């Protein structure tokens, strides 16, 4: 069943703000395997100049109500969430999210197009504090597998996405890397991260993404996947650790975006899947910002494409 084009342009928001809690930040950090003390240790975060624990850059996905803010419960929309896989995700942050923030997240369905038998839905997100302060924007591309109407011609419907937030803060509080000492082409320390089924369960719980393709072998097979796959956002968060580890301060990240090119299949054994990440400084921008290009592979396959993070250094 094709998605309902009439929903493009509509906005959806939770009735109450999302309160960012310390334990939620700690749980999210544990789910992505990140021991950075700014996520876990209140004293370390305050020593670094933050008012409370800092959230990982991709934590914003947890602040989006329901299933990525989509009207899944409305039968008129026509979405089967088990057929959905992530195609693209981007976040632009004007400041880091910290414990104690109260955030509103407005989801706007910004586009729908057909690619062969699939439909590609795009959604934009506007995150603000309850004071009205812009905190971040996001863009999400989702692939609805096999739901395009084979008798219809190509479909493309679009509306404007939310505007990007204001300029990021002037400098990260705890970055250990100086902008003047970084050269274009510099390689970041590589990272290797193993994902097991237990990690998928932990991530589902802390992110709120309980799509059965991430834990149920039967459902994954029924929708044509090669097995249970990792959440795209877990892969994205895992890869981002190479940049935050290098910068020394997760609050240095002001933009991060990826395209999901191949799923990370996680076998039901003690070995799991090995995600290997390499990062290279691609550009130096004004305002002490650098763009890092990430190459992310699993079993020799490139699982993320156009993976880039912009970090503001000391």
Automatic annotation (TrEMBL):
Gene3D superfamilies: Hotdog Thioesterase. Residues 6-136 form the FAS1-like dehydratase domain. Residues 194-284 form the MaoC-like domain. GO terms for molecular function: fatty acid synthase activity. Pfam families: FAS1_DH_region, MaoC_dehydratas. GO terms for cellular component: fatty acid synthase complex. One of its GO terms (biological process) is fatty acid biosynthetic process. Belongs to the enoyl-CoA hydratase/isomerase family. This is MaoC domain protein dehydratase.
């Amino acid at each position: 069943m094709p998605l309902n084009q009439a929903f493009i342009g509509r906005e959806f928001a939770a009735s109450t703000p999302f309160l960012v809690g310390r334990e939620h930040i700690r749980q999210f950090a544990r789910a992505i395997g990140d021991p950075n003390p700014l996520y876990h240790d209140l004293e370390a975060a305050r020593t670094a100049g933050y008012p409370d624990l800092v959230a990982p850059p991709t934590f914003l996905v947890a602040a989006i109500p329901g299933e990525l803010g989509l009207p899944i419960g409305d039968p008129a929309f026509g979405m089967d969430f088990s057929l959905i896989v992530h195609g693209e995700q981007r976040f632009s942050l004007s400041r880091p999210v910290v414990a104690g923030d109260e955030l509103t997240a407005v989801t706007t369905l910004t586009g729908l197009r057909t690619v062969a038998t699939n439909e590609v839905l795009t959604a934009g997100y506007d995150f603000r504090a309850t004071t009205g302060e812009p905190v971040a924007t996001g863009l999400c591309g989702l692939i609805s597998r096999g739901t395009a109407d084979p008798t219809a011609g190509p479909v493309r419907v679009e509306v404007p996405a939310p505007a990007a937030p204001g300029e990021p803060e002037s400098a990260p509080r705890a970055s250990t890397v100086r902008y003047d000492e970084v050269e274009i082409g510099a390689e970041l320390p590589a990272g290797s991260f193993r994902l097991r089924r237990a990690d998928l369960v932990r991530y589902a719980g802390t992110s709120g993404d309980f799509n059965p393709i991430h834990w149920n072998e039967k459902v994954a097979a029924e929708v044509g996947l090669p097995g249970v796959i990792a959440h795209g956002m877990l892969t994205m968060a895992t890869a981002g650790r190479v940049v935050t580890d290098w910068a020394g301060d997760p609050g240095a990240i002001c933009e991060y975006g990826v395209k999901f090119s191949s799923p990370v299949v996680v076998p039901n054994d003690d070995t799991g899947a090995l995600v290997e990440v390499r990062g290279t400084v691609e550009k130096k921008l004004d305002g002490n910002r650098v763009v890092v290009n990430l190459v992310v592979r699993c079993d020799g396959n490139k699982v993320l494409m156009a993976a880039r993070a912009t970090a503001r250094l000391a």
